[in-house]
Specification:
The protein has 181 residues and is α+β, with helices and mostly antiparallel strands. 33% of the residues lie in helices and 27% in strands. The protein has a four-stranded antiparallel β-sheet with strand order 5-6-8-7. It has a two-stranded antiparallel sheet with strand order 1-2. A two-stranded antiparallel ribbon has the order 3-4. Strand 3 and strand 4 form a beta hairpin. Helix 2 packs across helix 3. The longest helix is centred in the middle third of the chain and has 26 residues.
Length: 181
C-alpha cells in the first residue's frame, strides 16, 4: 500500500513538488517507478557510460488514466560530454550507428529510433544551439494485464542487454576513435 508515502518529484520545468505514488508505482531511490520494473534493470540502465535513462515504463493496460493503454518503453539521452564528439563525427559514424542499431534492436516486437536534434530557443540562448541525441525503444504491443507477463519481462531483459551493448559501442567510437564498419 502506497498511502502515506510522499516523494519530491521534479516536474518538466525542474520545480520540486510533493506527491504520493500512483497505484501502479513504487519508490526506488527517491523516484517513483512502475511497480514491476526490477531493481536490477533500473541499476543497469542508470549505470550506462554514454546515455542517461530519461524514461522507462512497463506499459499499462487500457483503463483509467491510460484509457488507450500504453506500451513498454525505454528512453535514453546522450550525456552532454559525448554530444560534441558525436556532432563532430556524425557524418563518419551515422551509417555504422544505423547498422549497429539494426543488429541490436530490430525485431518484430520493437520500434527503435535515434533522434539527433538541434534545438534553438528564443528566450534562453545561453546554450543555443542545444544538441541532443535521444533513443526511443518501444514495444509494439500494449500491455493487456496489470501483472507483467513473461513476454514483457523477456522484452525488457533483451532490450537492456542491447542498450548496454549499444552504449559500449558508442563509447568506443566516440572516446577511443574506433572505426565504424
Amino acid at each position: 500500500d502506497n498511502k502515506g508515502i510522499f516523494c519530491y518529484v521534479l516536474n518538466m520545468k525542474g520545480l520540486k513538488y510533493i506527491r504520493t505514488p500512483r497505484p501502479y508505482e513504487r519508490l526506488w531511490k527517491n523516484l517513483y517507478v512502475d511497480k514491476n520494473l526490477e531493481d536490477e534493470w533500473l541499476e543497469r540502465l542508470n549505470d550506462l557510460k554514454v546515455f542517461n535513462l530519461i524514461s522507462i515504463c512497463e506499459g499499462h493496460p487500457g483503463n483509467g488514466r491510460f484509457s488507450k493503454g500504453s506500451s513498454p518503453h525505454i528512453y535514453l539521452r546522450m550525456k552532454d560530454k559525448f554530444v560534441a564528439p558525436f556532432s563532430q563525427r556524425f557524418g563518419l559514424i551515422s551509417d555504422g550507428l544505423y547498422k549497429k542499431l539494426i543488429e541490436l534492436f530490430k525485431d518484430r516486437n520493437t520500434i527503435t529510433d535515434i533522434e539527433y536534434r538541434i534545438k534553438f530557443n528564443t528566450t534562453n540562448c545561453k546554450d543555443c544551439p542545444k544538441r541532443e541525441v535521444v533513443i526511443h525503444i518501444r514495444a509494439r504491443k500494449k500491455r493487456a494485464s496489470h501483472n507483467m507477463d513473461n513476454s514483457t519481462r523477456k522484452w525488457f531483459i533483451k532490450k537492456i542487454i542491447a542498450v548496454e551493448k549499444f552504449d559500449s559501442f558508442v563509447e568506443s567510437i566516440l572516446l577511443n576513435g574506433n572505426q565504424v564498419s
